[in-house]
Amino acid sequence: MHLASVRIRNYRLLVDAELEVDSATTLIVGRNNTAKTSLFNFIKGILEGGPFGFDDYPLWKRKGLCDSVNEYICGKLSFDDLCASVEPIVAEFRIDYSQEGEEDGLGALSPFIIDVDPELTTALIVVEYGLARNEKKLRDVLAGGRGDEDGFDDAEAVCDAIKSEFKKLFSMTVYAVNPVKENERQVKDIGELKMLFPSCYIPAERLLGEDGSKSDPLASLITEFFDSSASELGPEVAEMMKDLHGVVGRANKEVQGKSDEVLSSLVNEAVGFGYPNAEELQLAVTTRLDFDEQIKNQSLLSYTAKEAGESLPGTHNGLGYKNLIKMEFLLAAFAKSVAKAGNACIPLLFIEEPESHMHPQMQHAFARYLESFIKRIGNTSIQTFLSSHSAHVANTIPFAQIRYAQKTKDGIVYKNLSTFADKHRDNTDFIMKYFTLTRCDLLFADKAILVEGASERLLLPDIIEKCAAAGDFDGQKYRLTEQYCSLIEVGGAYAYKFLPFVEFLGIPCLVITDLDSVAGANNRAVSVSQGETTSNATIKWWVRRNVGLPEDGSSKIELPSVISMPAEKKTRKQCHIEFQTEEHGFCGRSLEEAIRNVNRAIYGLDNDATEDDLTFGNGSKTDFALDLIYKHDSYTVPAYIRDGLVWLNDQKTIG
């Protein structure tokens, strides 16, 4: 059995968000401030029984809460109507136990199965943190918050009381719900929920010091070993612990006897005043030495060089290794606690930004071997939730296990990338291969630019800075230079494969590509004035969508219809395309020709230059771009690129 989905309502930005959960590992990605940490905090809060505070209630629902309470105070709402009108913070856990056989016990899930249909293999648990149904308590709390028992007509004061006393006004209730009759429900205990979902949370801010403090992961793990019975440990570990206990026991006995003898003599010699005399009981010292506790509390990680026979303290090792070692200890301890619980349950592991302090190769290795490591340290299946800002982690996790967190005006939406894959198999194969070969920065970007090749990739950052310096982006408070924009070199032949995925993610995207004018039966490259059509697959795909033709059709796209494409037809949803346009009487067929056209003096061309003079030839495009940047800082930017960047600058990132 496994957790299939979590639906969250009315918690911070998670106004109504449903997360489909993978049976093994779920990776949650997205740009900053898309409630990835809030998701983990919410589930942790639910499983710990709360409470939540006023700051956890969605911003745009707080006024409604205060207004409803004020209407109740003014006698416009009954208490029952008030309770019905105040939206609770809600978690819905949907569990799939279809893989369990008739002989398998459902263990901790059993209390939450209240339907009688033997064919139904889904359980639904609803947890509500809502207004407590205690009218006297409500009025007492509000009166206490205002310091006035009589006058409840001050709306602002009542709202202040709600803010300060939110945790007293709200309470948590756990329900087992019939999945097919959701009005049929039974109240359950929060303890039963904890038994079903034993959980471990590893936050991003991990304490990495090996200083013997309580935060020391080695000390805590050793303490658990010492306190465990042999039956709770694996055979090899149990045998080693038996040897260690023997060594410690013998050392305790030997050192204790010698210590008592020496310290007793020392005390007797030091004490004067004629006491004790020979007939009295003699003073002695009994020390309480406990090597168990010494080992538990004073064991620190060190790093040994075998050849030199020397060791260094843990503080001398890199933070990346410490982070990895600490997570391994915590995972081992969690697996041990889950195995100890015994009863059938659904363990949940939450790791926030595991890439902290790790270099890219280590991030990749961690993501690649996480599932196998978890299987190795325990027999119970653990469902893992990861949140990450690392393209290296996202590259490693299978595409179908990734959930993209998108921020919209209505709150956070979690998008299952496997949903896209099911509808766009050809595109997905290409995107997965591309992500594997490069990096999937697209999953963390505010906006994206898809470019033709190396020249555009090298020139675009410099061109963006030029446009910003010229004031082209001043129409927005946060200019394009201040936004995280992912620049992806994908080529005109493949950019269109990205566009459905970009639309799925909801990211504003600019495509900068080349006209690539051709003519004749063999599609020979020619100047734009002689061109009959374009060889650019992305432009043809775009035009066909504009006119309603099949995207994979073979109908000829006339070049004049491309060149004359109006501005409004260059935008589809949140995607915009730009290609060369006419300037100074000519239109280049490529970026290089467009740059030569508007920078004629740099290339020794005068106003009488012909279209053939603009031809770039067979030189290195990379050298062309670098030469322009480093030798001709004041070059002019072609209009089509400037127009596209201004469009992208003006787009909102929250749809």
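The record above closes out task 2.4. Task 2.5 opens with a second protein, given below.
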Amino acid sequence: MPLRKLSYLTLLGLALITAVSVYFVAQLRFNYNFNDFYPAGDPDLDYYQQYSARFGNDNDYVLLGLEAPEGHSVFEPGFLTKVDSLTRFIQQRRHVVHVTSPTNATNPVVEGFGVFNVPYLHPQEPARRAQDSVLVYRTPGLVGNLIARDAHAVTILFQTAPNLSKPPGDSLLAAVRTELSRQGVAESQYHLAGKMVAQSVFVDRLQWELVVFMSLSVVLVTVLLWFTFRTWWGVVLPLVVVLGAIVWGLGLMSACGVSIDLMTALLPIMLFVVGMSDTIHIITRYSTELGYGASKKDSLLIALKESGFGSGLSAITTSIGFFTLMTSTIRPIYNFGLFTGIAVLLTFALSFTLLPAMLVLLRKPQLRVPRAEGHSWDGVLGRLFRTVLAQRRLVVGLSALILIGSVASASRIRINSALLDDLSKNDPVKLDFAFFEKNFAGVRPFELALQPAPGRSIYDLQVLRETEEIETYLQKSYGLNFVASPVTIIKSVRKALNGGLLEEYRLPASEAELQQLVRRVKLFRKKPEFRALVLPDASAGRLTGRMPDVGSIRADALNADLRGFLRQHTDPNILQTRLTGSANLIDKNNENLTLNMITGMSIDIVMVTLIVLLLFRSLRMTIVVLIPNLVPILIVAGVMGAAGVSMKVSTSIIFTIAFGIAVDDTIHFISKLKLTLLHERSLFKAVRKTYLMAGKAVIVTSLILVGGFSTLIFSSFDGTFYVGLLIGLTLLFGVVAELTLLPILILYFYKHKPKEIRQPLAVKL
């Protein structure tokens, strides 16, 4: 079949696949499901899902903080009237289950067979202001929870429908903001926090940043391609190939029912940057042969022949780098690794089908400077090669010193994360969350499942006493600023039966008194604040609370101490407990981060080792190849340690991805060296020739990779910022190691044994 006809058929087939992909891409949706970041398949997750089905989710709420005007107290009638109006407005909104506010908080009193709820605050009776404020500060659970300790702010907490999605959640938040504006509350005087708030902000920013960073990457790569090839086809053809691979990758992701989240949002940018490598190697070799006078057909065949082997191996190693992320138990990371790895292979396929087809159908291009450009690169690379060899002792010595310092600094890296890790310190959303950390109980939920021993009820006096002891520990030693449990119900019932007196807010002294209280519990069971603390049959209970977001390191230490306390002070024959909750699951991710990262890196290194062993049949050559790619990883680890960057969900993927990408150029280099050694007896000349042939493509692809990833440093998400910065640094250090350490190491180890490399290759080919 004629080459041009085959090219037309190839383009037609690829166009049909692309059309199908575009159809699926149009159906892609953005998603920020908090639950997706829990460790999939973990027994604790299964338990939490069962726990949530019985008691409700611990993060289906929104906190609305209102600051009183400067110089005024929250107890002033005008401010309380506004709070009460907002409370009523929110209570009437769709998807709001219950609202807890200072103006609807009541002190229940039982008289006869009825319960009278006496409000703590009376905005319409200014004369009772002093009396009300004294009662509020004496009542447990109000100050620090609904009213700030300095009496300059209040919180309205509204419980929402379970797992409320973004559209209705956004509508609810918009309605609240509109009402706040209507009542004259300035934006600086109110604060919103909760999963729904974070969900809304994250998805909106994901959509915006995806467009912005993709646009920046296209512009930056276009400029670099133009300065490299100085031809329109040298710019357009790589862009067409890579954009086609992105459409295919996103289409496949959509067809598999996967949405774009915080991790998969990086796929288009990652693929756009990484996918340029193969096309640049092909076009570089193609234009070089054209510059030396070869025909279009011969130039293309030589470019495909010489680039195919190295590009195939690099596509495998790069995709493996992404596929190893599938060892993660976090679903977004798993999906990101799977589909980006597949997309890398799709890019390779398009580079050797779509790109050659377009080059065949285009006229033979006229290079602006046919030979001078090649000589210019040869001259620069030749001088660099000579300088590196002349200063090899200095290069090796500096590398060793930097490596030692990096390893020492890397030992300071800690695995730590917080609930809003991906937002910068000065982000408005994070500042709002910090407001509740400073003035109220905090935003980190705490959950402890309470299971009475067989034959006991959650309302047994011994069970309640052990629960109260746990409550006391959690408030005094653990750091809970707000706590509620079945003990809260019994104490509240006792207080209500004794005229609402605060001194009666305690557990009963005897079983007989307790039984009288239990019979009255049904009067309180329907109260929203008590409904989710005990199952209707009293077979299980829940201890819930809130605290500041102390980070996973501190939380792990607190949880270890709590487990020790529970072992020593809780009798399993009376009460059994289990730590659970969304925050606990997020902390659990950190326990797996190190293992996942080590597993991923190990798989990546083993696969690269096997490839080099098959390529060179030499263990020493394998070590030589690995060193220039591991050194940049260790240096960046040192940078993380020195800068105090913690290891967390978003940064844990950096090393695996960086190694998989960085080794790409090394694979191209040694594959070209392999071909050169087939007809070059001198190892020195073979290395020098390879250096000149591969150097341009190595430098250009590295500049594009570093430039592309550098656009991510403008992200408002810290995780994305560090992915861009640290992978960019890794690749920058990698190209330096590639052009300095790699030729030195090859010549040092194989200077007198060229046959050790050449002979097996000749047999192989």
